[in-house]
Amino acid sequence: MKSETAEWIDKAEGDWGTMLRESEVLIHPNYDAVCFHAQQCVEKYLKGRLIEADVPFRKTHDLLNLLEALSHVEPDWKTYHQILSKLSIYGVAGRYPGLLSNQTQSKEAVEICREIRDIVRKSLGLFAA
User: Fold this and answer.
1) Tens-level pLDDT at each residue, the chain (129 residues)
2) Burial group, residue 117, by CB count within 10 angstroms (0-12, 13-18, 19+)
3) Domain boundaries, the chain
């Protein structure tokens, strides 16, 4: 694995851990933070996969744009378009007033993140952790 890929994966794992910790909070959970870190984890995993495949990509938080960039490398991943569109909004819009996440959305974000994290890790030859 390229060192730059490993750096993206390390950053993604930081978001993964933060998301998991916050999703377990019982008193005053921050559902926005859970959703944001789920989106960030997936974004960084997709960028790591792009770097590993030598696919250039523009600076973006749009998961669908990143998925499209990966379409020649991982054509089967197109099936994730719908779930990634749900998660993509939390990268920017979810950080500002006007969008307030709830428990149901945060649980869905965690599950989407888990699924995408698993497929990218498998693609990179990493064991699921």
Assistant:
1) 999 999 999 999 999 999 999 999 999 999 999 999 999 999 999 999 999 999 999 899 999 999 999 999 999 999 999 999 999 989 877 677 777 899 999 999 999 999 999 999 999 999 766
2) buried
3) 3-123
Residue type, 122: K
- Alpha-carbon distance 22 to 33, whole Å? 7
- Model confidence, pTM: 0.94
What is the third-level CATH fold of 3-123? Four Helix Bundle (Hemerythrin (Met), subunit A) (1.20.120)
Is-contact 53 73, C-beta < 8 A?
Answer: yes
Distance CA 127, CA 34 (A): 23
